[in-house]
Amino acid sequence: MSHELYILIPVAFIAGIINAAVGGGGLITIPTFYTTLPHFTPAQIMGIDKLSSVMGHLMSVRQFMTRLRLPWKLILPTAVSAVVGAYVGIRLLDFMPSAWMRPVVIVVLAMMVAYTWFKPQFGNHDNSQPPGRADLLKGVCLGFAIGFYDGFIGPGTGSFLLFLFIRFFHFDFLRATACAKVVNFGTNFATLFFLVPNGLIHYELAIPLGIAAISGSVIGVQIALKGGNHWIRRLFLLLACTLLIKLLWETLH
Fold first, then answer.
1. With 70 as the cut, is the pLDDT of residue 97 above it?
2. Contact 230, 31 (CB under 8 A)
3. CA atoms within 13 A on the CB side of 45
């Protein structure tokens, strides 16, 4: 399969940059995996994508931790809840198609894009406060919902997390990106508890792609830190619009 790696490694590298900077690298990797590996099942594609993503997310989390102060009191329960949601989602993927959720996701995504587009100041400033009980409850509920989406559908999870951390907890784009990386790492890692025991990961592909994702994440974090909130906001809107168009196309055809 070495010839396939010539195509997939650059894609994983670019996805690593995007995932670290704003999320949404799955919009690149998943279609490429399906095109390059047509003999693989959807679950096997998911296995390769999730393991390589976990490796890239771990590196980006490590980098953000050394540069930003993160609200661990909020992030950890949100991440734990997201892990549970992701595991439930990946288990259900074996029993029912995810297509029935697509119209709901399209509506929510369209609202999210419109809200960000028409609020230019959205995410420009960090107005967060120390989390109270209500914030922790919101974090747990949102974490489970996003985790379920990640396990059941997948692409765009980082973008949804980014939006929710800004909308509900009033972070700026940069800090929300860092928080989203922690939770997204948890959701991707949770799916491995199902994928690994069932032999759905092809390590000869996933590990080289994970190394490429790690290299990309180093660059992605630097871009996010230097570009700041305005740059991340633009990239977020671009990726969210791309995901919306992709979902609409798949629904209508």
1. no
2. no
3. 21
d(C-alpha 10, C-alpha 14), whole Å:
6
C-alpha distance from residue 95 to each of 34, 77, 112, 181, 210 (Å) = 21, 28, 29, 29, 28
121, exposed or middle or buried, with CB in 10 Å at 0-12, 13-18, 19+? exposed
Distances (CA, A) of 209 to 2, 126, 197, 198: 12, 34, 20, 20
The residue assigned the tokens 């629904």 is 251
DSSP symbol at 132: -
Return d(Cα 91, Cα 99) in angstroms, integer: 15
- The pLDDT of 104-126, averaged and rounded, is 84
Q: For residue 135, which phi and psi values (nearest 5 degrees)?
A: -65, -40
Q: How many CB atoms lie within 10 A of CB 197?
A: 8
- Six token digits for residue 152: 């059941």
Q: Residue 225 carries which side chain, given as an amino acid letter?
A: L
Q: What is the pLDDT of residue 98?
A: 59
